[in-house]
Amino acid sequence: MDARETLLKFLDERVFLPAAHADPHRYDAQDRGVLKRVRHSVIRTQIRYHEEYTSAEQVKENFRRDLASSFGQSLAADLLLLKLPRFEDVKDEFFGLCQSHEI
Q1: I need a labelling partner for 95 at 20 to 30 A (CA). Which of 77, 85, 87, 88 fits?
Q2: Cα separations (Å) of 2 from 9, 14, 29?
């Protein structure tokens, strides 16, 4: 597995899939609406990472940008409300993985 695939697998397992597969029955009616919106955003983000970022360097750079973007911060607030993992929760491990792959 190359470095790009390793980073994408990490993000899939730690952030994208837990949000995409979150059980709506764990939430009240209001939070189910938030979950629906969050799922849509997370799946779009996952597709973007897999289809548009063709190198490990692009994955790393866009992860860094998403951490700082207003969209990313708004999504992170919703994920926190729903008690789902966010980029912020895995950033140290992600950047450590980048470092171990010399990215």
Answers
A1: 77
A2: 11, 18, 42
